[in-house]
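Margin note from the TA: students keep mixing up input and output lines. Inputs are the sequences; the output is the structure of the whole complex. Example:
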Amino acid sequence: MTAACSLMVTIEPESLELARGLKRRDPDLLDRLIEQYQFRLFRYLWHLTGDRQTAEDLFQETWVRVLERGHQYDGRNRFEAWLFSIARHLVIDRARLKKSSSLDALTDPNEPGGGVQFEDGSLPSPFEELSGKEEASRLSAAMQRIPATYREVLVLRFQEDLKLEEIGAVANIPLSTVKSRLYRGLSELRNLLEGDRP
Amino acid sequence: METDHERARRLLDMDQVEGISAADREWLDQHLDACAGCSAHRERTAQALQLLRSQPIGMNPALVNAALKAKLGD
């Protein structure tokens, strides 16, 4: 295969149909998209922000943005990658408003940092709120100690099943960085869970 | 120089992140059959990812969607 061939982008018919519907601001289509992607979007936002209320606010803002900017979706990437990308930008915008000291962690590809902090430490974390189970608590503790840049790619890869190239598009980072963050994140997650084992 | 154990653990992670070749898989399977330490490492990795994948999503769609529909209806 030539280099040119390997760079060709195949647009799936479903994605093209989606793009046309979004250009028309088709309300039925938006309803279907919300129905289909609401849980995954919310989970991504919740992991990234660590705060339920902020995630709910950004969830709504994301769908409003989808409606406003739907004409910009061209079907070249899967819809969920475009959706997460919009959500991610809103998280960064929100962090800027709050003057988050860890903003660079998400925007600077060379700086893993600590994480985007919105949460009130006295409130239950995403995982703790879900369940009082010991496993949920262990995972919560581990994820909160993993830098935001690593946490993000772990969620996109292993929970949302995005391809490496799609993660790169969402986070606006090269493929090599996606891989290195996944390796570091996986190593940290495994070590933290192992270290916390009773 | 990478040891067999280091190679096995690198391939285990690579398998999860980007996949490995058939030749690497064959070598890895043989190593894991003979190495308890690396087999345990594989189990720890599988358990960590299973825990991550199996987390439920704590969202109340009715609550979120009611507010969202109100916003979109503006």
